Amino acid sequence: MPANKLKAFLDEHRVKYLAIRHSPAYSAQDIAATVHIPGKEVAKTVIFKRNGELAMAVLPASYKIDFMLLGGAVGTEDVQLASEDEFEDLFPGCEPGAMPPFGNLYGMDVFVAASLTEDERIAFNAGTFTELIQMSYSDYARLVNPIVLHFSYESA
């Protein structure tokens, strides 16, 4: 979902947001540093397979997924990271790895790390590695209706 389509979706739902353009940055932690937002408030999107089905995990940039915890939280031991080849066609117009955390728009379950819900606002890639959207977490939760679970830990 390119940035313009995402913005149109947010506008349609009367969501207040801030679009932030920045120099190219390819990891969520680098993006957080570039735009001077704490890594805990920048959400990264990770696509994983649960029993062979693609799903989306959303967690703070400064955190990592514990796949054993994630499997327990989603009720299966069959959980693994998906390769870009397995999902790149699902997000037309998005740069691989820069998908916004709106899996519901693509028929995917969305699992949010509980730690991401602790802050009032979140920011995330808008489909590119040069633009970020910042909005309230409550608006994000209302639009996406994610399943909130404990599956991540803060990286050192």
Description:
With 156 residues, the chain is α+β, with helices and mostly antiparallel strands. It has one domain: YbaK/aminoacyl-tRNA synthetase-associated domain (YbaK protein), CATH 3.90.960.10. The protein is built from five helices and ten strands; from the N terminus they run H-E-H-E-E-E-H-E-H-E-E-E-H-E-E. It has a five-stranded mixed β-sheet. A three-stranded antiparallel β-sheet has the order 1-8-7. Strand 7 and strand 8 form a beta hairpin. The longest helix is centred in the N-terminal third of the chain and has 10 residues. The chain is globular, with a radius of gyration of 14 Å.
Secondary-structure element string: HEHEEEHEHEEEHEE
- Briefly note the CATH topology name: YbaK protein
- The share of residues in helices is 10-25%
Could you say which overall geometry the principal axes of the C-alpha atoms support?
globular
User: Which stretches are low in confidence, meaning pLDDT under 50 for 5 or more residues running?
Assistant: none
Task: Tell how many strands the DSSP assignment holds.
Answer: 10
Determine and state the CATH class.
Answer: Alpha Beta
Largest sheet: 5 strands, mixed
